[in-house]
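#struct-pred

JT: dropping the chains for the assembly here, can someone run the whole complex?
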Amino acid sequence: MTKLAKKAAVLEDVAALLSGTPQEPQPYRSLYAPGSLLTVEHLSIADVAEIFAATARLERMAGVDRARVLAGRTIALLFYESSTRTRTSFELAAKSLGATTTLVSDKSSSIEKGESLKDTGLTLRALGAECIILRHAASGSPFLLARTSGLPVLNAGDGMHQHPSQALLDLRTMLLRLPQFDPARPIDAKTLDGVTVVITGDILHSRVARSNAMLLPRLGARVILCGPEELLPEDAMGLDMGEGRALEIERDFDRALQQADVAMMLRIQKERLEGLSLDLAQYCVQYQLSAERLAAHAPRALVMHPGPMIRGLEITGEVADGPQSAIEEQVRQGLAVRRALLVRALGATA
Amino acid sequence: MSELLITGAHVIDPANGVDGLCDVLVRNRRIAAVTSPGELTGSLPAEKRLDAAGMVLAPGLIDIHVHLREPGQMHKETIRTGTAAAAAGGFTTVVAMPNTTPVNDSVAELEWMLAAERGAAVKLLAMPAATVGSMGLEITDFRALVRAGAVGFTDDGKPVLEDEAMRAALLTAAEVAVPVSQHAEDTRLTGGCSMNAGRMAFRLGLRGMPVEAESRIVERDIRLLREIKQVEKLRPHLHVQHVSTAGALRAIRQAKEGGLHVTCEAAPHHFTLTEEAVGDYDTNAKMNPPLRAEADRRAVVEALLDGTIDCIATDHAPHASHEKEVEFERAPNGITGLETALGLALRVLHRERGMPLARVIALMSAQPAKVIGLHQRGNLKVGSWADLVLFDAAAEWRFAAKDSRSMSKNTPFDGAAMLGRVRATICEGRIVYRA
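RK: done, full complex below.
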């Protein structure tokens, strides 16, 4: 067993201990099919622990056994926006569990002819889909699809709103890679106590930032959002879930980095700028994560990026490929965590 | 000779200071007498008497801001169904907005809309477009349109954004003595936006309309009024539609104190709900101007209480279910409102905030009548049209969208608590609704 797998196994045992914990009241469950994951707000800490426990169990399974978990089940991937990582990892995750998958994209379907999201969902359901994985440019569209189709929906990124599976895979990457984390401790509201995560860049347009900023503080992390006013308005404090957990804004990147255990970088989403003018050269001077900056201010921090990254803009190639980078680990964890989300969505046991 | 004596009701006629037990005699479709109880009882046979003991009898309600969708969008609403909803809500007069298909910007369109063949259940009036095609550039023929019945001009749904077009509209409206009714939204600040700007919009990943988008246009329009007053010695009437922000209300309050002719309206949803109602992207909580933060909602309530806001108007905006059952950002703006306005106003303003019943009635009858210059409606003066609403002011009930007379059911108030239930609506002496 590798070191990472050992660590994951402990996580699972801890989660098992927690399984007797009574569930928080969650009225959303009546509106949306069980197993849906629309926003991290719907996840209790116990839910996260269960998902990670299943992730670890599935990881340890022999390939042939894993391929039986969702054998005979049908999963639809509905993608209205381009995607490399998320789509491929959901698809590979489903296939590795033995499920049949079908990919519907806006470019090659009746969506082009004007079919609504509701009708597309009903059509997929009629064809036997038991779960829909949705990527869509409109914030909130997974709620609409879940309400109208009645199927469990996994939000694979909706507009500027949420990308919950990304936050889960980021969290698991941190738990596996951060030296501070004690695998013997249960996943609870103190799991990330003492951990400071700095999320830097285009917060305004980032569903990844929103998802992490709303999930990590509930596990005890201090989250610092960093970026210029145009990309990080004060309204971002709306991501603060309250309960006295820490969410802060720091405009000075160096000062933020000095506090960082994790430096999470974000791409400038040119496609969503909508007339916002931004001096990219100036942006790089202030906010690019370069080797010099990292060495000077955060020589031990874990470097993360949800991708796609633009090397030479928000991050230099040297840093992305360097020893502090966990970027490829994030992608690997994406596959692992998404398996567990699919099993949860379909109510299967693993 | 048609006659009807309504007896024993608590009569509220704010325009004439009546607030007590009275009998009201209707003759030949007009108010013939308002007397002490029992004074006229002997003179009429029982079948011409309506016992209204325990009820409130008031001037029929007047809504100066409704979308009836005819012509051109009759899958959402027709004049017949929209005015039936109005009657059920206690309204006896409604003013149709011009954003139909085609836009109501000509005498021919206006006459077609107001024609008896449309089958309006209550008195139908209209505000034609202020600019040709509501394109915001060239003003329409105000004189001819006023002769044909226009009670004001508006490009509602859109602002008259250009200074020159708005100045021309105000000047010409002053000459024909009708208001220019402005949808105050600086659309240069609201492109791609689908709710109120702020923390909630950020959390939901939706682009937000800043409150300044409303107040800036109100301030600009007031500046134009001031300039016109100084230069042309004219006093145009600016009416600000669906005010939703504290900033715009501050500007309006100051302008009124400065002697300018500014009036404004508030919609029931803006004094009952906040942006929190958007919840999980409920498109029935999407309208323009959007539901605002609690501080703005409270400012609207205060301005209703202190008289800064002249009247309540619903902005009744029906949309078919398939149009609203889409992604939040793609859904059209607007909600229905004719059947929930009185119940919400009584619940929130009267019961929760202690506004006298007569003030609520004034905000929904005498005062909107004044805004559009009606003299024989919105009051119970002898000789006025017999437009009346009879309601049980103490009745508590829940609105059910499925029971609505409107063709559309797009309301955030399905299942919401209402106070005060309409029992009968009488328009020009005819009973147009009875429950």
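JT: nice. Chain B is about 30% helix and 20% strand. The domain at 60-376 of chain B is CATH 3.20.20.140 (TIM Barrel).
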